[in-house]
Every structure is written in C-alpha cells, then in structure tokens.
Specification:
Layout (H helix, E strand, L loop, with lengths): L2 E5 L6 H12 L4 E4 L9 E3 L3 H7 L4 H7 L2 H11 L7 E4 L9 H8 L4 E4 L40 H11 L6 E4 L2 H9 L7 E4 L6 H6 L13 E8 L7 H12 L7 E7 L1 H6 L5 E4 L6 H10 L2 E4 L8 H8 L3 E4 L5 H4 L7 E2 L5 H13 L1 H18 L2 H18 L5
Parallel strand pairs: 1-2, 1-4, 2-3, 4-5, 5-6, 6-7, 8-9, 8-11, 9-10, 11-12, 12-13
Helix pairs in contact: 4-5, 9-14, 12-15
Amino acid sequence: MKILHVNNQVRLGGAETVVRQLLRGFPGARLAVADGKTFPPDAHPLYPRVLARLYHTRLGALVERAAPRDRWTDRAFRRLAHGPHDLIHLHNFHGRYATIASLAYLTLRKPVVWTFHALWGVTGGCDHPRACRRYLSACGQCPQLGRWPLGAFDHTEAQLAAKLALLADLPLHIVAPSRWLAGVVEESAVGRRWTVHRIPNAVDREFTDALSPEPPARGERAASVLLVNRNFRDEQKGFPIAKAALDEVARSLNGRPRLILAGENSDWAASQLAQWECEPLGYVSKPAALAALQRRADIFLFASPAENFPCVVLEAMAAAGCVVATPTGGVIEQVEDGVSGLLAREISGPALAEVLARALSDPALRARLGESARARVEREFTENIFIERHRRMYEEVLRSWRPSA
C-alpha cells in the first residue's frame, strides 16, 4: 500500500503529530510538505529546497516574484494525481498551497483521504464557525474576518460556493477525530455526501516512551498548573478565557501558585498574569520535553473555545495529570467529567475558574482523576489502536475506489 501524506508543515502542532504517527505506523508511506525553510531528507517538498531556503532570507521578495510559491506548490500538488501512490492522505489544507480546483482534480484521479483537524473544508473559510451556521447554506458577512485562516476581506461567500460546486459531489473520505466534528461534516452543505470515518487521535508513542516510569509525588508540594499553547496571542487557543479563570482563582488563594507556560509568546502571557508565579518556556516541540512538563504539573488547564480532538489533552491524560478544561468540541469525548478530568459547566472564564479552584484545593481528587485518565488513554487512545483503525479504513477506501471516466 503506497500512501502519500500531504501537509503544510513538518512539525508544528496536532496535525503534524498525527502525520508523524502514521508515517511510523506505515513504513512505506511518504510525506509531501508545502511550507518551511528546510525539510528532512525523507520529505518531498512541494516547493524546491533551494528556493524554500532563499524564500526565508532577505532575497524572499525576489524569489516570490521569480517563482511565486503558491503557484509552484499548486502545480506540484496537481502532479500528485499522476504519481505512483495508491492513496493520497491530506491533512492541513486551507487552499493556500493548492487551490480547491486542484483538490477536485486530484480527487477525480486518486483515492483521497482527508483528515479534518478543523472545519475549513465545509465552511466559507473559517476553521471553527462556533455559533455561526451560515456554512449550512451560504456564507458572507463573516463574523470571523481577520481570524486565521481568514484575512481582512470577506471572500467567504465565493469560497463556500466553490466548495459546493467543485467538491460536494466528489468521492472524498473524511477522517473525523471526534463525533462532534463528524456530525458537523455530515450536516454541512458541502460534506453531507462524503464518507466520514471516525478515528480518534492517539497519544504519540514518542511522548509515552519519554514519560518517567512513575509520576512524581504531586501532592507533596504546592500545586502547579500547566498551559500548553501553540501561540498565546491566538485568541482561538483560549488564553483570554484561561486568563479570566486564573485571575478569578488567584484572588481566593493564599500565596502565589506556580504556572508553567509552554508556547509561542509565553513571555507576553506571563506579563498578563502578575498574580501567579510564572515560568514561561517558549515554544516546546520535542515530545520528551513535553512529557517532562506534563509529569511536573499537577493540573493541565485547557481553555480553548473551539477544538476538535486535541492531542495535548490526551498527553496530559497519559501523564496521569488532572485535566481541567472547557466543554468544547471533542474535548467532552476525551474527558469524562468527574471521572477522568473536570469540565467547566460552560465555555467562560468564571465557569472554568470554578473547576480549577476545586482541583487546586483537593490533591486526592487530582490523583484519582489523573489515574483514571491514564487508564482511559491506555484503553482507548494508544498509537497501536490508532494505526490499526487507519489500516482498516485505507483498505476499505481502496476496495471501493473507482476512477472517474
């Protein structure tokens, strides 16, 4: 089975973790990657390595004029339709490195699986529509302009129309990590005729291999709280909600609790949390380093207003940490409230503060929830289970594939 994975980056967040797991699980698989300055030797860049390196220097503007990156990667993406691979598995795809028309061209010529790490594929261009339901009929007048991946100009009506015209009737196979996301795809105007396979994300084996054999004696010292965030300035990742919760809790505590911040702009986040003793670490990418942080922390605080099935929550559970989270997207499928973690009653700072205060005040509760969380991961969210579910899905896709006339 010759599988080619296509993603925007080599290593960044949850999507890249999933790609890495699948490459390990299927040794013959390969990776095509669109963006970056340098690429591993075994990756196939959609933009030439020399140009990619020059693109990130002071010669970048000249390179872009001579060889526009998006046009080059779009042509390279189209050529995958005539390559040697049996199946193409897409991951992060936002119409940046290839157009919607090129995705349609590829899908008519190769079996295509597309893992939805967010909802861009069925909306007018947003990743998380939240309460907005315009994607069910016709977008426009978008309330999320300026929030990545949308820009300042409203092209959402045209983009949704293009997806309806070019993609809605194609034999796409969607991997939905959560029941919540599967339901959104199945009710959407664009995706209701696609085949949806629900395969939950799993804990990266590199992460579990790096965990110390036994968790530290967490109850023997002042409790610490860990926040892991790709970018603390990205409102979508929930820092405003986390800050509101932390400010509320700090007012009722004696002393200065310890807060560990891992992610881009962690120094800035620490400056917003003067009542806490903060340890800003910057962006942490290595699984071993993340495993050590999860082992150190008593509580993992997750405050996103909209998420799919975040790998970082599974990592906290695997480390037997006490997860305190907003009840969003697939998180409510990962964390059983009161059994393997604590969920706020709603997505808000005050609601999150209530459960955070409860966790901070009860070491025995934290220990019980953490052990239950670790057992749940070992039962349901291991990498071996994840790989086997993909194997069965790939075989089903290949059996059902019929090339277009």
